[in-house]
Design a protein that fits this description.
Layout (H helix, E strand, L loop, with lengths): L1 E5 L4 H12 L3 E6 L8 H9 L5 E3 L5 H10 L4 E4 L6 H6 L1 H22 L3 E7 L22 H19 L4 E7 L1 E3 L18 H9 L6 E4 L11 E2 L1 E3 H18 L3 E5 L5 E2 H12 L5 E4 L8 E2 L4 H7 L7 H14 L7
Parallel strand pairs: 1-2, 1-4, 2-3, 4-5, 5-6, 6-11, 7-10, 8-13, 9-14
Antiparallel strand pairs: 9-12
The structure holds nicotinamide-adenine-dinucleotide and uridine-5'-diphosphate-4-deoxy-4-fluoro-alpha-D-galactose.
The site of uridine-5'-diphosphate-4-deoxy-4-fluoro-alpha-D-galactose (UFG) has 21 residues, from helix 7 and strand 8.
Length: 337
């Protein structure tokens, strides 16, 4: 298939471009580089062994998106492009609703006009909000507690309404838990701008000496060691799931909503210990207060993804930590190294 990957220069998108090409698909990347670097493209082409067409376009420019869909004879779209920082979304909610929600509507309208009928969307465990549930199945009630999460909730509903109205249009909604790690080559990985918000890139920068120590946000949560629990999954496993979801849409011609996680929760201290063990390093850290907006626990029930897609995570925490560190140590300044 000819596949347009929006946000294909970003962290998860870039890994997915390779997974799709390995399955024989032709991929076109669309990105406005608001949170990524064009320098990822030659690395992707080297890893894939093929050129990858790139369109520097903003999603909200619907006419140009339409031209891209038509000129590249696109059969399916995998839609990663979004802003994703929770804290920033509380400070700039309008920018988040405009970029994420309006951007998706603009893309869906362009797809409708170009008669592109297959769509895979990056949703998030954030749609489950602050929940008491031990593990989250797809029918756990949804509620977001920040503007970023609300953009994902709204987009899920827009997609569902569009699927109901046009039964030829088939969509997969993938709810990611916490993706970490990098391609085993160490050539592509997560390259956050400025100070990292997320645990793994911060851990990597402490390990490299770029930051003095990791702040652990709270040890008074109702968890075994008091720190927050998350379901971390390897970005290579997550990338593969997109190719599986696309195969499902093609072979079953049904819509799909699935969680993508491992089904096991790790605490912040578990992650520090796994990183130290995998990479034979010490991570200086201190416990500070909770980060506003954080939830205690987010852990997937990944049973439905196994049942419908035969998808399961294959990498453990030690592999996630080893691959994240290989990328960081080979590229201390990310794509500017
Ligand atoms: P990322 O920021 O690395 O990638 C997103 C890409 O989209 C970037 O390259 C950015 O330049 C591009 N982009 C943003 N707005 C755009 C626009 N209007 N037009 C064109 N391009 C635009 O983020 P990521 O971690 O790869 O996340 C990909 C998707 O997965 C996002 O939708 C995110 O919300 C979702 N997600 C991420 C996580 C996570 O922890 N990384 C977890 C759950 C869901
Ligand atoms: N944490 C620290 N110190 C840090 C960073 C994080 O202790 O410097 C803790 C957090 O408090 C939390 C855990 O590490 O307990 C994970 O935090 P992240 O920021 O790495 O991830 P979140 O679960 O907060 O959010 C991430 C993405 C969202 C996505 C969500 C899905 O940022 O976009 O995972 O679960 F939706």
């Amino acid at each position: 298939m000819n596949i347009l990957v929006t946000g294909g220069a970003g962290y998860i998108g870039s890994h997915t471009v390779l997974a799709l090409m390995e399955r024989g698909h032709h991929v076109v990347v669309l990105d406005n580089f608001s949170n990524s670097s064009p320098k990822v493209m030659p690395r992707l082409e080297a890893l894939a062994g093929n050129p990858i067409p790139l369109c520097q376009v903003d999603l909200r420019d619907g006419d140009t998106v339409f031209d891209v869909l038509v000129s590249h004879k696109i059969d399916a779209v995998i839609h990663f492009a979004a802003l994703k920082a929770v804290g920033e979304s509380c400070e700039q909610p309008l920018q988040y609703f405009d970029n994420n929600v309006s951007g998706t509507i603009s893309l869906l309208l362009a797809m409708q006009k170009a008669n592109v009928l297959r769509f895979v969307f990056s949703s998030s465990a954030m749609v489950y909000g602050d929940t008491e549930h031990e593990t989250l199945s797809e029918n756990t009630p949804r509620s977001a507690n920040n503007p970023y999460g609300r953009t994902k909730l709204m987009i899920e509903e827009i997609i569902q309404d569009h699927c109901a109205a046009d039964t030829n249009f088939k969509a997969a909604i993938l709810r990611y838990f916490n993706p970490v790690g990098a391609h085993p080559s160490g050539m592509i990985g997560e390259d956050p701008r400025g100070t990292p918000n997320n645990l793994m890139p911060y851990l990597c920068q402490v390990a490299s000496g770029k930051r003095e120590k990791l702040s652990v946000f709270g040890n008074d949560y109702p968890t075994p060691d008091g720190t927050g629990l998350r379901d971390y999954l390897h970005v290579m496993d997550l990338a593969r799931a997109h190719a599986d979801a696309l195969d499902y849409l093609q072979s079953q011609s049904k819509n799909l909503t699935v969680n993508l996680g491992t089904g096991s929760a790790s605490s912040v201290l578990d992650m520090i210990h796994a990183f130290e063990q995998a990479n034979k390093l010490k991570i200086p850290h201190e416990i500070i207060g909770r980060r506003p907006g954080d939830v205690t626990r987010l852990c997937a029930d990944p049973g439905l993804a196994k049942e419908l897609l035969s998808w399961e995570s294959r990498h453990d925490l030690l592999q996630m930590c080893a691959d994240a560190w290989r990328w960081q140590s080979k590229n201390p300044e990310g794509y500017n190294s």
